[in-house]
From TrEMBL, chain A:
It comes from the Bacteria. PROSITE patterns: B12_BINDING. Gene3D superfamilies: Cobalamin-binding domain, D-lysine 5,6-aminomutase beta subunit KamE, N-terminal domain. This is OAM dimerization domain-containing protein. It holds the Pfam family B12-binding. Residues 102-246 form the B12-binding domain. InterPro entries: Cobalamin-bd, Cobalamin-bd_sf, KamE_N, KamE_N_sf. It comes from Nocardioides astragali.
UniProtKB/TrEMBL annotation, chain B:
It comes from Nocardioides astragali. This is Lysine 5,6-aminomutase subunit alpha. It holds the Pfam family Lys-AminoMut_A. It comes from the Bacteria. InterPro entries: Cbl-dep_enz_cat, Lys-AminoMut_A, Lys-AminoMut_asu_sf. Residues 8-523 form the D-Lysine 5,6-aminomutase alpha subunit domain. Gene3D superfamilies: D-Lysine 5,6-aminomutase alpha subunit.
Amino acid sequence: MSLVRPYGDTTGDGMVQLSFTLPIEHSKVAEGAAVQLANKMGMDPALVVHAKPMGDGFTFFVVYGRVNHLVDPSTVEVVERDYPLLTPKEANAAIKRSLRRRLVVVGGCIGTDAHTVGIDAILNIKGFAGEKGLEYYRELKVVNLGAQVSVPQLVEAAREEKADAVLVSQVVTQRDAHLLNTREMSAAFREAYPAAKRPLLVVGGPRFDETMADELGVDRVFTRGTTPGEVASFIVHRLTSPRTPSSPATTTTEKAS
Amino acid sequence: MARPTSQLGLDRADVRQARTLARQVGKPIVDLATRHTTVSVERATLRLAGLGGADPDGTPWVNRLADVVRADVGLEHGVSLPVWDALLRGDADDLLTLAQKAAAGSVTFRVPEGKDATRAASASRKAVAAGIKQIDRQRIAREKMIAKVGDAPSKPWIYLIVATGDIHEDIPQAQAAAREGADVIAVIRSTGQSLLDFVPEGATREGFAGTYATQENFRLMRAALDETSRELGRYVRLTNYASGLCMPEIATLAGLERLDMMLNDSMYGILFRDINPIRTFVDQRFSRQIHARAGIIINTGEDNYLTTADAIEAAHTVTTSQLLNEYFAKEAGLEDWQLGLGHAFEIDPEVPDSFRLELAHAMLARELFPDAPLKWMPPTRHMTGDIFKGYLLDGFFNLVGALTGQGILLVGMMTEAVVTPWISDRDLALQNVRYVMNAAGKLHEDFRPAPDGFIANRAREVLGEAIGLLEEIKDDRSTPGQPPLLSAIADGTFGLMKRPPDKGRGLDGVARKAPDYYNPATEILEGQ
């Protein structure tokens, strides 16, 4: 694929829009400062199409302009799905065939995070984006611990339930709480289980970077827009296919086609 | 005053039946609540008697004292008799010294009997009455200030949130938000405070996605908003959250420091925080009695049901919860004007007629609770990060608010689910509200849904489903020996969460009252 530029209404026009606030009273100087910022960001020419005072000493701007940057999709690194998408029926059948028992999933929000929206979207039968949650899968036993579960509680629940997979959702990201909590969680599981017995660790949330799984010590990171079907498919794929001793690569560089 | 006939064609008999059912479902819970006390109710009582502050580790003295009393004589008698008995016996000159000595292990408590009990009861009542008098004074101060500087100029009141984690950052942000047009400022609590079994002490500068509710933070913010109210010539109200394990204490602190609104839902903590149901209902009743006395408007949390369940399928659970919240609130002494019953604009915008459905649900709430302010909550579930679409959705949310005379409108942010609101997000959101209110604020004068049209039919359908659900709850015997509502909560009737009465956080802080249980606060609040 060839190099591309942003598209306004003509191929190659490079047009982008931008809005921001500067901590200055609205004036001609403020508008000039907005243009200067846009220029420094690579927009040239930059056109301030809207400027409005917001509170004392602040001005909000909307700027349209042209950028000359080219982007090269062939050098973009993404995590491509490395497992087949299964319907709930196929997932159930795969579990039955290979485990001959229900697959146990324990989930929750760890740390002080009280936002269960993510874990509930994946686990609750209600689901997300038109897909039913994991509770809907007959061969999955889902234990949703809800919000504000401590790491020791999570480990204990995983042991008690003999969890095959542990799902953790992290929405709050202040001071990188999501990363700290995830590392604490994966360390606790490594300590509590021998490597071969450790449940599959899956973490998700809108601000995670999918490529960080290894660094965080988990088996998979899911990010914004993940559906229950994707999570179920991943878990089933990893737990019903022969387990590879080393952690498989989660990052693949692939030319987008 | 004669009510206008129903625009939705609601049958008065149905409305009466819904309320009767709510009472039948609620009454056994009230009975259960009056048979129990909790550590937080007892600590709130100590706070009313003037015990504040914390030990060097930050554990409040009310916790230290209540814990020792409990260890010595149990919780079932209440802390008042043992504590004031110890004071009368000369173990300490005042509550703080007693708490310090108790913490050091140099005081042993007993349950006084006979004349000693009478004297301890009367001394405790005197001490607690002083705290309730302070709450009364704050209520009068609010009324006087509103009379002097003026009230919010129009309905709905514009409700804006600040949440930096640092009270000293919150203050200028709250003042700026008030200057930009907010009538109500809510300081979101730090994530996780609801599960703390103590109220942190002092001014706090660190929190997660919010600022800790503490007495000092309350005081600082109220003083700052008083200043801004005088500057703007309108009283700016302050909101916080009486929920979680310390609900009664936080309600008490709110009364003492003249907060104006408190989030205070009867079942939220049970369903969404896994707090024990009995603990919640006991704490709930005490906190609502305090709110009633303090002239605080409560905001209930029905919007939360719609964040986990489908907003169309679960519409009747909102109505059901509103009816229950109303019953519990009135039983605790709150009046209609204090009932900010919650509901939300959460229907998937891809659903055909989603706006008409929203309008039907909002009109139903308005007609069922004509004298309650109602708290109208903006879309969150279907705010996707497409801020442009989100801005439009917020506009339609505002339009429903205008059309249905909502009392309290929480301003929706187009960056919901993206970032905590930026200064520009707030300004744009307020522009959205102003445009809709200017352009269509009086549209309700012209707008009448067709008598047998889509909206009226949908409203009647939801009311019918709510009545059906209340009937089902009333007959729920799945948890033997417990009130039907507890059975219903246990089997997942609300918000898909199953919360049995013998599980959940804070259960160990609940005690069944002994025959000699005494609590001067309850006695005064119930007008005995």
